[in-house]
Structures are given as C-alpha cells and as structure tokens.
Amino acid sequence: MERWAHKCAIVTGAASGIGKEITIALLKNKINVLALDVNAEKLSLLNREWVQQEDCNKLCIMRCNISNEKDLERGFSFVETEWNSGVDIMVNSAEVIELSRIIESDRAAFEKLLNINVLATAMCINRAVRSMRQRNVEGHIFNINSVLGRKIPSTAFSEIDGCNGWNLYPTCKHATVALTQSVRQELIDVKAPIRITGINSGLVETNIFKHSPHVTEIIKNMPILKPEDISSAVIYALSMRPEVQISEITIQHRDEA
C-alpha cells in the first residue's frame, strides 16, 4: 500500500455505511480523500470524527448530488485545482434502492434509480479515467455492486406495499456488473495502467433501508455483513501488485443463501 500514500481518492456516498468505511480505510492508509455525498450533515460529522484522529490525513468533504453533472464536475475540478493533482482512486459507492414492484411504480422512481445507480457511476468512471490517462499514472476504480447484479431475487422482503419488490435495483446492478467488465476490456485495449474492480456484496448493515422501518426490523434477524467487510476488500484489491487485476469479488455472510 506504500505506493498509494498521498495519492488522491474520490469516494461517492461517503457520509455513511460502506462509503464511510471505505473513506476511513483509505485515510488510515495515508491516502487523501475527497468525500462526496448528498447529506451535508453526515459529511460534517465524518469530518469532525476524522480530524480528531492523531495521524490526520487530508480529508475534504463536499456536498454533491452525483446525478447532477455540474455537481460532479465540481468535485473532480476541486482535486485538480485545489490539490494540484488528479484522481488516482475512484470509489463508486453511492446508491439508492426502491422496494416497490416495477408494475406498480412510476417513471420518476425508474429515473432516480438509473440516474444514481448507473449513469452517475458511468460518468464517474469516465471522468476518473480521463484524469488518470492525462497524467499517465496507475489508477484503480471500484464499483460497489451487489450479488443482485448476478441473480434476480425470487422474493421480496414482505407483501406490504413499499416492501414487496425490488423495482429496477437488480436491473441497475446487472448494468454496473456489465459496465465494470466493459470498462476493463476498454482499459486493456488502450493499454492503460488502470485496474477496475467490482465488489458484489450481499446484505450489508447500512442505512439504505432507512425509509422503510418495516424492512429495517426484518433484516435485524437476517445474516448480514458489516461495512468494514467491504472496505477490507477494497484495501486488499488495492494492495496487489500493479500487474494483478482483481476483477470481481463476491462477499456474503456465511449463512446468507
């Protein structure tokens, strides 16, 4: 990991859950991080927690709606101008979920899921790769996917309205699995020293279900991962020799079906 010290990372969805744990893991490995999230209050809390650490590395926070192109460009421009650098590590961790049935949903829900889970991820990859290639540096991209990107769930959490489906979430995760594989092939084609890793996680203890107290109660009794399980996988893939490509990692609780 020594070669990544003082390099620059951008993490989306960094204010809580998986994104927060990845942010902290990168900082502990002496990597500078720009933490992006739509929740400014939780970003401030993350910043206060980190500056109290004895070995304080550079953390900058920025409220950012990643589905807004201007917001996203502001983040990448900050790294280039304020830090006089570019992106070396890109972590796409931000996501939203909708637990209604597709056949009972609407276009607004579809657009929100696709814009944040798929299109914003593609734009972050596009912008990060351009930054890495312009400087001809080693880079690494992480897409935090899901086991639902490899299978379609046969059941929902509940029959209660608003908890009885997965909407386009599995569709989005299938898309980001394909996106990861497509970009990996493109990077090989252009002979760029950039790796891309997809992490397919099972159920993780985060606040993604915060809008559904019923589901939050249900998952308390289910086998579930900790966010740090995912951040450990990121550090593992990042620590490999530059020639070693960890293309995909699936992480589930031992007892998760």
Write the layout of secondary structure elements.
Elements: E1 8-12, H1 17-28, E2 32-37, H2 40-51, E3 59-63, H3 69-81, E4 89-92, H4 107-135, E5 139-146, H5 169-189, E6 194-201, H6 213-219, H7 227-239, E7 248-251
Parallel strand pairs: 1-2, 1-4, 2-3, 4-5, 5-6, 6-7
Rounded Rg: 18 Å
Structural class: alpha/beta
Based on Cα principal axes, name the global outline.
globular
How many DSSP H or I helices? 7
Oligomer: single chain
What string gives the helices and strands in order?
EHEHEHEHEHEHHE
> What level of helicity do the residues show?
40-55%
How would you characterize the overall build of this protein?
This protein has 257 residues and is an alpha/beta fold. The protein has seven helices and seven strands, in the order βαβαβαβαβαβααβ. It has helices at residues 17-28, 40-51, 69-81, 107-135, 169-189, 213-219, 227-239, and strands at 8-12, 32-37, 59-63, 89-92, 139-146, 194-201, 248-251. A seven-stranded parallel β-sheet has the order 3-2-1-4-5-6-7, sandwiched between helices. α1 links the parallel β1 (8-12) and β2 (32-37). The longest helix has 29 residues, at 107-135.
Main attributes?
257 residues, alpha/beta, 7-stranded parallel β-sheet, 7 strands, globular
